[in-house]
Amino acid sequence: MRTISIFTSIHSKYNNLTNTEKKVADYVLENTRSVVYMSITDLADACDVGESSIFRFCKSLSYKGYQEFKIALAHSITVENEIPQLTDQILMDDSTEAVASKVLTSNVSALNETYNLIDIQKINETIDYMINAERVLFFGVGSSLITAMEAKIKFMRITNKTECLMDSHLQMMSAALMSERDVAVIISYSGSTKDSIEVARKAKERGAKVVSITRFEKSPLTSYSDLTLLCGANEGPLQGGSLSAKISQLYLLDILYVEYFKKTSEQSIINKETTAAAVSEKLL
Known about the structure:
Elements: H1 6-13, H2 19-30, H3 32-35, H4 40-47, H5 51-60, H6 66-80, H7 96-117, H8 120-132, E1 135-140, H9 143-155, E2 162-163, H10 168-176, E3 182-187, H11 194-205, E4 209-214, E5 227-230, H12 243-263, H13 265-280
Parallel strand pairs: 1-2, 1-3, 3-4, 4-5
Helix pairs in contact: 2-5, 4-5, 7-12, 8-12, 9-12, 10-11, 12-13
């Protein structure tokens, strides 16, 4: 773990940066807290430079990549605070009552923002893709994989054409065998996870429809997506797998489930009754 503040590092190396890198450095120094929640594409757009310039800026500061740079930035912000933060809202000395209130506020805020980001036309197009598909494959890595599995379990109550594989190698193999009759629903908060990007690229190559559920409208993942559904939770680099992010993703998936059920109600009702009856045999 680095002990030197990232701000000290930027200032000490500033004169050796290129003019483009100095634009990035200036923006980071002036907008520190917002940069923590920005994708590499967002920062590039804000600085009016290419993504490659952001990467070179990170390398000039001796970081391996943008994510390591953001982690260092988040650490430096924490060090500068008198009371370290557990999240962007919760402080170390907060009472249990305060924590409960702030967690509630954070989750409700994430849901409200996700609701405000909903594009009804994209929701309807996604439903059409799924109804007309031969298979619907849910993909994710890390905590997003758990969300993808939740989606698969939910949809398998009303249709037998959903899949979700837990291993990243198996996910790539599955994507490599997709066709234009299939739909890939890829869940990734950042849209910058290598495995998810590769799955999207491969699915797109195979002619499948690609739907991404992510925080950022512009990211490496969305460049391969036919449709992008945005979730509204803010998650810093030290908050990976936050509940508010997962709740906002599940909210979108719940909307897709209900709309799918409504538009395929005749068959979905039969399937739901059948799967419910099968499970009931397991209960006392």
